[in-house]
Structure formats: structure tokens, C-alpha cells
Automatic annotation (TrEMBL):
Name of the protein this chain belongs to: DegT/DnrJ/EryC1/StrS family aminotransferase
Phylogenetic placement of the source organism: Bacteria, Pseudomonadati, Pseudomonadota, Gammaproteobacteria, Pseudomonadales
Source organism (scientific name): Marinobacter nanhaiticus D15-8W
Family membership noted in the UniProt record: Belongs to the DegT/DnrJ/EryC1 family.
Matches recorded under Pfam families: DegT_DnrJ_EryC1
Any GO BP: polysaccharide biosynthetic process
Superkingdom of the source species: Bacteria
Length: 361
């Protein structure tokens, strides 16, 4: 079987060495030595500062909202945040969960990221933030979004779940905005089994978030503000350190598969327009087909050959009723109905996938 993705599993010998460290220290959580080591190594690898590890990518978003204060009521009404409907549900549902109403802004038909020109029309007196997504690791138009945020005094929190290691104009893409969040879920390019991180622009926001992820506790008898348990464990950090040790091997393999797809898939498959200013991470290979019927036909055909790409992201989130956002998003709705992510992971038999696709065409 060829699934859409597989977790990268590092060498057992390497992982066991980190597990031995856990047994030696007898520390399993509460900002243990492996979490501290992983924090430092990720800051070096990603070339960022103010990185905070957390237990998953959804909590990374929620902690960022609260650390930056965008969850507070505006004139006794819920705050609003503008985001994209073409994303994983957690981007929008995490806002709703925190009492913030997501307001969708349509996407660019080529990059599939939020279209800056559509953002301003969605801004109201309740708007506190913009939550763009670097879709499939492709950079948003960060300059245009930054100008809009400055004009209206809005916070910008980038959902960078797909953008691990991506550089923009020679610097980490994670430096853009007031904060950027990462998911370290098992299926991601870099993972800790479950996990996530936030990269803050300002150290004071990092320090506030650091309190929040430990119940608001700052000392054995001191609770300074409301908090939650969002700490990463030592076991998660052990997996992350093992994966990071082998990151270059993983990247080389994914790049080879990505480039193979790019050169060999049928020419009528529309590919994402990658921002010319980025160094890409080869995390995903999405294609857009002519219509939804072709998507379903290809899915069925490949399933018969035990190959399982995925409609990712589908459906477009303006259609999700509990998000309470009924404005039409025609570009996102169209792209979402025609999108397909091809299998991509370390060791993926992309040649078999390509050969099978061509058997249909």
C-alpha cells in the first residue's frame, strides 16, 4: 500500500540513546533537559529566536492567540480574526474554541494562500488579527499582509504548520508576523509524534506564553494568570531529537520524490505556484484537476492499485456550519473541490504512483 503519507521513523539505536537519557535523569516532563535541548537545536536549525515547544499544533495556535491578547472581547462582543477557508479545520476551529469568530477571506487562485486584496473588505470593528496559512509550505504575500496589519493595527499569527525549514529571502519564514505556529504531528516533515511550537517576534510574548503552558504557575506558590497544560514531554522531545538528527536524509528523499512528480505528472494537472522568494521544504505535492468528477475518478482508480492520495483540503471551510460563516468563497470552493495531494514521504515509491496515474490517462 502507498498511503498519502507515513511518519518518518528514525533509527531505533538513536532513539534509544535519548530514551536512556530520560531514564538517567528520571524526568518525564516540566521542561526537562531533552525539551531544553530540542528548543536550542530547533532555534539553531530554523535560525529563529523565542521558540516555545508545546504538546500539539492546535494548542500552539490557541496559546499564540492568548499570548497576543486577541481572544479578548471587543465592546462586549466576540473578537474576530480573518483567516483562509482553504486550510485544515484546526486553524479555524481553534479560533472558535477560544471565543474568536473566524472571518474568511478568499484565496489566490495560483498560490492557494490567502489573497491580501480580499482581506481589507473583511475587516470590521471587531477584527483583532489576521491568521494566514502558508499552505503546503508556500509563503503567503507577507509584505502585503504586513502592510494591512500595520494600517489597521492588527496582530498577525501565521499558521506555519507546513512551513518547517522554509526560508523567505534568505531568512526563516517563521520570523514573519507577531508569531508563527508549527505542528509536529506524526505526519509532518519534522515531528515529535505529537507536538508543536510557537515562534514569537517579541521575547515578552514568549515569556507570557511560557507561563500559560504551565497552568499559569510561575513558582510553587505563585499563579500569575490563567493557564493550561500545554507542555511538551521528554518522550516527545526524544522522538524530535532523533528525527532532527536525520533531517537531511529525510529532506533529500522528499526532494527527489517531489521533483519526480513535478517532471512526470500529466501536464493538465495544475501545480501550485510557489513563491519565487522561498527555499522550499518539499513537504507536500498537491495537484489540481479539471473538476471534482476527475478527482473522484482518479481516487477510485488509484485505490484499486492500493495507492491512496488525499483530498487535502476539502471541503472549503466556509461550508462548515458550526463556524458560522456563510459568505461565499468562490476561489477556495473551486480549488478545494479539485485538489489532490499525492503520496509523499521518506521511501515513497513515487515512480509507481506516476506510472499508475498515466495508466488512466
Amino acid at each position: 500500500m502507498i498511503p498519502v503519507t507515513k511518519p518518518y521513523l528514525p533509527s531505533r539505536e538513536k532513539l534509544n540513546r535519548y530514551l536512556d537519557d530520560i531514564y538517567d535523569s528520571n524526568v518525564l516532563t516540566n521542561n526537562g533537559p531533552l525539551v531544553q535541548t530540542l528548543t536550542s537545536r530547533l532555534e539553531d536549525f530554523l535560525e529563529v529566536e523565542n521558540l516555545l515547544l508545546v504538546s500539539n499544533g492546535t494548542l500552539a495556535l490557541q496559546i499564540a492567540y492568548r499570548a497576543l491578547g486577541i481572544n479578548k472581547l471587543v465592546d462586549r462582543k466576540p473578537a474576530e480574526a480573518i483567516t483562509t477557508p482553504f486550510t485544515f479545520i484546526a486553524t479555524a476551529s481553534s479560533l472558535k474554541w477560544d471565543g474568536i469568530q473566524p472571518s474568511f477571506s478568499d484565496i489566490d487562485p495560483e498560490s492557494w494562500c490567502i489573497a491580501p486584496e480580499s482581506i481589507e473588505a473583511q475587516i470590521t470593528l471587531q477584527t483583532r488579527a489576521i491568521i494566514p496559512v502558508h499552505v503546503f509550505g508556500n509563503a503567503c504575500d507577507v509584505e502585503a499582509i504586513g502592510r494591512i496589519a500595520h494600517k489597521y493595527n492588527l496582530k498577525v499569527i501565521y499558521d506555519a504548520s507546513h512551513a518547517f525549514g522554509v526560508k523567505y529571502k534568505g531568512e526563516s519564514l517563521l520570523k514573519q508576523g507577531d508569531a508563527a505556529t508549527l505542528s509536529f504531528h506524526a505526519t509532518k516533515l519534522f515531528h515529535t509524534g505529537e507536538g508543536g511550537a510557537i515562534v514569537f517576534k517579541r521575547q515578552e510574548d514568549l515569556e507570557r506564553a511560557r507561563k500559560m503552558i504551565n497552568f499559569g504557575i510561575t513558582a510553587p506558590e505563585s499563579m500569575e494568570e490563567i493557564g493550561i497544560n500545554a507542555k511538551m514531554s521528554e518522550l516527545q522531545a526524544a522522538m524530535g531529537l532523533s528525527v532532527l538528527d536525520e533531517m537531511q536524509d529525510n529532506l533529500r528523499a522528499r526532494k527527489k520524490a517531489w521533483e519526480g512528480y513535478y517532471q512526470k505528472v500529466p501536464s493538465h494537472f495544475t501545480k501550485q505556484k510557489i513563491n519565487k522568494n522561498i527555499t522550499y521544504n518539499y513537504a507536500y505535492f498537491p495537484v489540481m484537476l479539471k473538476n471534482q468528477d476527475e478527482v473522484k475518478k482518479l481516487l477510485l482508480f488509484l485505490a484499486e492499485k492500493n495507492i491512496f492520495p488525499r483530498r487535502y483540503f476539502y471541503p472549503s471551510l466556509e461550508s462548515v456550519k458550526f463556524l458560522e460563516n456563510e459568505k461565499p468563497m468562490p476561489v477556495s470552493a473551486s480549488v478545494s473541490s479539485r485538489i489532490l495531494c499525492l503520496p509523499l514521504y521518506f521511501g515513497c515509491d513515487f515512480e509507481r504512483v506516476v506510472d499508475s496515474i498515466w495508466r488512466l490517462y
